[in-house]
Give the backbone structure.
Amino acid sequence: MRLTLRVVTGLAVSLLLGGMAATAQADAAATYNTQCAACHGKDGKGIPGLAPALKGNSFVTEGDMQAIKDTILQGRQGAQKKYADYPAAMPPWPMSDEEVAALIAYLRGPLQG
């Protein structure tokens, strides 16, 4: 009986965490679509003359997590811009640690797919 209860409890926790992960991914996709896609494109391929591609961008896929987080939260402008030929600054997007972590996971995962 105890083993069965442990298995059922473990399964319930797995389903709950899996559901939470799916919700976080859906929330991150929604955040991308409302805050990032207008400049970086719905598919992450960028918009010529406006913003660089995030899909296939080594800064996004392999870059330092803190640098990516700082870019999202603080934006980039002037001499901080990596792509000086793009006229627009990257605006800051204030969000919680959980939201930015989920967004980075989305940028590195599903958006790259």
Notes: Residues 60 and 107 are 7 Å apart (CA to CA).
